[in-house]
Amino acid sequence: MFNEKLLDILACPVCKVGVEYDRENQKLICTKCGRRYRIEDGIPIMLIEEAELPEED
Ligand SMILES: [Zn+2]
User: Fold this and answer.
1) Is residue 15 part of a domain?
2) 37 near 20, Cβ under 8 Å?
3) Which of 10, 35, 43, 44 shows its CA 20 to 30 Å from the CA of 1?
4) How many whole angstroms from 19 Cα to the centroid of ligand 1?
5) Domain range holding 23?
6) Per-residue pLDDT tens listing for the chain (57 residues)
7) Cα(1) to centroid(ligand 1), Å
8) Assigned domain for 55 exists
9) Which pLDDT score, from 0 to 100, does residue 35 have?
10) Which domain CATH number covers 45?
11) Ligand 1 centroid vs 37 CA: distance in angstroms?
12) Ligand 1 centre and the CA of 14: distance in Å?
């Protein structure tokens, strides 16, 4: 399980701002750029090259 207390210390490596937890999809979403970082076995993968880019409108 992902420990939500980690949200206090995790930040998007691109923007250096906080991320939101998407419980349904087990992803962390940057509040600025919208990149999505997956969580594997409770460990967030905060790597730029592993992030999913937000869909463009
Ligand atoms: Zn970001």
Assistant:
1) yes
2) no
3) 35
4) 8
5) 4-50
6) 899 999 999 999 999 999 999 999 999 999 999 999 999 999 999 999 999 998 766
7) 23
8) no
9) 97
10) 2.20.25.10
11) 10
12) 5
Q: How far apart are the CA of 41 and the centre of ligand 1, in A? A: 22
b (16+ CB within 10 A) / e for 13-33: eeeeeebebeeeeebbbbeee
Pairing of strands 36-40, 43-44: antiparallel
The pLDDT score that the predictor gives to residue 52 is 97
Distance of alpha carbon 11 from alpha carbon 55, whole angstroms: 20
- Compute the distance from residue 54 Cα to the ligand 1 centre, in Å: 10
What is the CA(36)–ligand 1 centre distance, in A? 9
What is the model's pLDDT at position 55? 78
- What are the residues whose beta carbon lies below 5 Å from ligand 1 (ion)? 12, 14-15, 30, 32-33, 35
Q: How many domains does the chain have?
A: 1
**In the prediction, which pLDDT does 57 show?**
66
User: Does residue 40 fall inside a structural domain?
Assistant: yes
